Amino acid sequence: MKYGIILILISFSNIIFGQIERYIPCSNSSQTVSHKYYTLSYSEKDEQAEWVIYFLTKDRLVSGNEKRLNNFRPDPMISTGSSELVDFKGSGYDRGHLVPAGDMKFSFDAMSESFFLSNITPQEPGFNRGIWLRLENLVREWALLYDSLYIVTAGILNADLEKIGPNEVSIPDYFYKVVLRVSSDDVHAICIVLPNQGKDEDLQEFVVPIDSLEKLTEIDFFCGLDKSLQAKIECCVDTSSWKWFDRMVKEDRKVTNQIILVPREPVEQHQKIQLVNPADRESMLFAEKLNSIENLHSNSVDSIRIDSVIRQRPYSRIEEILPIIENDTLLYQWIIRQLK
Predict the structure, then answer these.
(1) Residues 153, 8: Cα–Cα separation, whole Å
(2) Helix residue ranges, H only, 114-240
(3) Tell me: the pLDDT tens digits for 196-213?
(4) Of 34, 51, 142, 324, which has fewest CB within 10 angstroms of its CB?
(5) Per-residue pLDDT at 281
C-alpha cells in the first residue's frame, strides 16, 4: 500500500509569534491545543494531529544549539489521551515528527515539546529518513533565506486508513506542508504533498494548489485571512517565487554556514491544460481525458500527483506523458486506468 505525507509551509517577514492566531486553520476536530511553541488540532479517531502550526525564523535557527532529547511521551494536554509509545513498538514505522526537532534547537522547552506524541505520526523509515528529511531541510533553508515562516503540517487523515497499536493510530498515506511568505509588497504560498514512502524525485514534483489539499482534508487553512487573499494564494501553483536546491544537506549542518547548494532553475509556472489541434481526433480525445482528470481532486489522493505532472505543460500524446511517471509504478497504473 502506498503511504504518504503532506506538508504545508507559510513564510512571513517581520511577523511576531503572537500573531500566529491569525493563521491557524479552521479545524475539523473539537480539540485544539496550544503549547508554548506550536498549536495543533487533535483528531481522536486517528490519535494524531490533523494539523500543526508553528513559527520558524532565521534567528532561531542560527542561535539554536540544544541537543535532541528523544523524550517521546504522551501529551498531557490532550483531554482524551494521546497515542503512547506502545503503539509504535514493533510496528515497523518510525515515530515521525510533524514539528521537526531540528527546528526546535533554540530552547530546551521547544525541543522537549517536539517529542510529545501528539506531534508524532507513523512514517515509513525510507520516507522519514529520506524525502521527508529533505523537505524539512528545504524549509530550514527557506527560513534562513526569507527570515521567517509559518508552517502548517500533518498527515492527510482520510477514512479507512490502516492503524497500529492498541490505541489504533492511523497511518497516513500522504503528508503535507504549506508555506506562506509575506513581504512588504506581496504574499507567496506553496503546498507540498508527499506519499508516505521512500522517494528520490525532486521536491518540486510534489507541489500542488492549496485548494486541492483543502478538498481532500476538508480543512480551511487560511480561514482568518481576507477572502480575496485566500483566493490568490490557494488557487494556483507558484514555484518560481521560491528558491529550490538540488539536494538538501544533512540535518546537522551548521546553519551559520554559507548556503553552498546550487539553486535549480524554477519549474515553469503550471498552466491549465489546453485542448490541442481539434483537427487531430486522437490528440483531442487524449487532451479531453487529461482535462477530466483535473476534476478528480475531491475523489482521489493520487490525482494530486497527476496534477503536478500534467500541469507543467500540455501533452498531446500518451507517449509523451508516460515516460514522466513510469518510474512510479502505482501512479503509472493509476493514470493508465484513467486514460482508458
Answers:
(1) 5
(2) 125-128, 131-146, 210-217, 227-234
(3) 999 989 999 999 999 999
(4) 34
(5) 44
Distances (CA, A) of 133 to 143, 231, 262: 15, 30, 19
pTM: predicted TM-score of the whole model, two decimal places = 0.70
- Compute and round to an integer the Cα radius of gyration of the chain: 20
Look up cell 498531557; give the residue. 76
CA angle, 209 then 156 then 321, to 5° = 50
Give residue-wise pLDDT tens across range 78-113: 999 999 999 999 999 999 999 999 999 999 999 999
* CATH T-level assignment (fold) for domain 5-234: Extracellular Endonuclease; Chain A (3.40.570)
Which of 185-199, 217-231, 311-325 is least confident?
A: 311-325
**Domain boundaries, given as residue ranges, for the chain:** 5-234, 281-339
Report which residue type is found at 264: R
